[in-house]
## 1
Amino acid sequence: MKKELLAYCKYYKGEKENPYEGNKAMLWLAESVWYREYSKGNCLTDTLIAFCDNFDDAGLFNFKEKDGVPIALKATIFTLYAKYNSGTIREAGEQFKQFYNIYYG
């Protein structure tokens, strides 16, 4: 199952050290957090549920819903993005769409 989870990650490949800088470093971190949380029981943990709530609060729950990236992973990326790049969850929503399109197409 862990290899299947890693297949969803664009930046994190199981490394112990983050090989990136800048935005890609944050994306690697977000993917590694999602991977570790989801690997705990192959389900949504309380942490991932909180991230999904943030994603929904920002009006993003249906954002790119058919791009093959699990919503909990997108929500984790969003939550870290909002933490490091914006004042509030709501303010981060529109900015995140542009950011996500750059790094995940």
## 2
Amino acid sequence: SFIKSAVVQKIQLPSRHEIILNLRNLSSANSQNKKLYININPKYPHICFINDADIKKRNIEIPKNPPMFCMQLRKYLNGSKIKDFKLVEYERILEFYFDYFDEIGSITRLCLAIELMGKHSNVILYNEATKVIIGSIHNISKDKSSIREIYGGAKYIYPPKKDKSDILNVSYGTFLQIFKEKKLIENFHYLYRDILENIYKFSSDEKEIFDFLQKLVACDKMQFMINFWGTGENINSAIDGYFSNILFEDILKAKKTNYLKAIKKEYQKLSQTVQNPPECDKALNYKKQADLIQACMFQIKKGDKYLHIGNERIELDETLSPSENAQKLYTKYKKAKTAFEYKLDRYNSSKEKFEYLNSIYFNIENAKDFEDLSGTKDELIKLGYLKEDKKEKNQSPNIAKTEFKGYDIYIGKNNVQNDYLISKIARDEDLWFHGLNFPSSHVILKIQNNKKRPPKEVLEFCAKITKENSKAKLSGKTSIIMTKRKYLKKPPNTYLGYVTYKNETEIIID
């Protein structure tokens, strides 16, 4: 096989749950490089070979400062050859054996034990002869476990044997009793919840299930997994395909949740603010009363408490003259007007920020992959919602592009991409599409120098793309606006991706 006689060329620990061993086999039949991926996360425990596309899909990032266990593995395993590997019987432990040459040339056989055991999963490097542990991903002291300690210098021992049976060595009667108690997993080796749930879907006959499980345990496990999961041409592609999809979906969902949480508090606060715009009725009422007093000055005598005009009753200060009463109300009007204008400025500022956060909210929810989220992450860092991670950033965003009827169409998936589209990619005659009064991607239709206005079907296609990448994607009739790039304006000191426009055309999309 490829693994036997493969040499470890590079070791990486992307996280406290992951290890990547870069292997090279120089034999004539299998002279190639492969990446062995080990994941001991209780939610995704698996081992398989991965490629660069898998690394991107799993969002694997290599830290600049490797953890201690990574340094230990590099010290003992870099350049070492895998001499053998085995699966411990009745355990979810896979062991790789290496020959380590020390400073004086002596050979020591080391074992890298990969334990996929739920929350107790671990990767442990130990000396095969002395059983002394060199290091592990997770150290376990006697304070954490009175049964099995794992740390550098301790003795490596296997987990306590579980009181389970081999289904090949029991009678149907014994199986039936355990089956009725719904305790198959607790009593038999090799049986797992996912496998049983799928078997139950296809059969409810106890004898048929018993016969099938016996065949399952007796058969070649690798071939069974290929047939059972039904994906890929071998077990590696089956495992890789299954877990990479789960990891992709879970990590993407977790990132979205984290980013939304970062802006949620202020987003909700601004949402309440924009629903309650300031009112100027109080100021206008003061002015109205002052104007009425001025108009009816001849009817008022000093000492009057009220001025009655139709249904209107205006309270007067009897110690003041009519003119002074009017002046008093004008002063109140000016103060109330100033307060209103101040509140209005704050309201407009809050509304503008809310609309900007609303676009970020949409970009996060609408993201299809990690690349769509990367620009939004940079935005949130600049705004102070997330901490700077000090990782190198791309010089330019990778913007989605499609083609229709010979026309190139660009789609911005976040405000960083939207701003780059407007600033760097779009030219004056290119057409810009956006949702009317709701968040959406910025869509740019490139107009070549030798082409006139695109046909109606091309414009409608761009409008449909805009709707599909908007908050109104599930709505019925939707208004999409279109204008030339030269009619867009980026106001100074405004939010990223924000533009004003004129000379727009409205396109209605079902």
